[in-house]
Write a structure and sequence with these properties.
146 residues; single chain
């Protein structure tokens, strides 16, 4: 362990090396024996903890606080309720725009196909006189076709 890592763990775990995990505590003690800077860091951390302990009085929690807190927590739902209701509802809502878009796309495509067929019929009627006769009303034009 180097001094920077030691300082990091001092900040995270405190100056009481007995509360550290065994492997880290052994490495920290070894570093404190070898390094003057590590000893200074440990001493500063212990002084800071001592000063904070003196400044901040120990506050006892009111009687029954634990019970009141637990009573105010919402009840946990069963995991299958979450899976069946809460997981599928957003998925179903996300599918609504997809289904609507698919339906609109099919309608537009069918409408375009119908328009293309109508345009084809008009063009065919313009260029093919036999086809034009198919669209004439009976008796509307008494003149015979040449």
């Amino acid at each position: 362990m180097d001094e920077e890592t030691f300082e990091h763990f001092l900040d995270r775990r405190g100056a009481d090396l007995d509360r550290w995990p065994a492997r880290l505590a052994a490495e920290a003690r070894s570093l404190v024996e070898r390094s003057a800077r590590a000893r200074d860091l440990l001493l500063e951390a212990r002084e800071l903890e001592f000063a904070l302990d003196e400044l901040l009085p120990a506050i006892a929690a009111p009687l029954g606080l634990h019970t009141r807190l637990l009573a105010n927590l919402p009840e946990r739902e069963a995991w299958f309720d979450w899976l069946t209701v809460k997981a599928w509802r957003p998925a179903a809502l996300a599918l609504v725009p997809l289904v609507v878009g698919f339906g609109l796309g099919l309608n537009v495509a069918q409408g375009a196909t119908a328009m293309e067929n109508a345009d084809d019929d008009v063009l065919l009627a313009l260029f093919d006189p036999d086809e034009l006769a198919r669209y004439e009303l009976p008796g509307a034009n008494a003149a015979p076709l040449p």
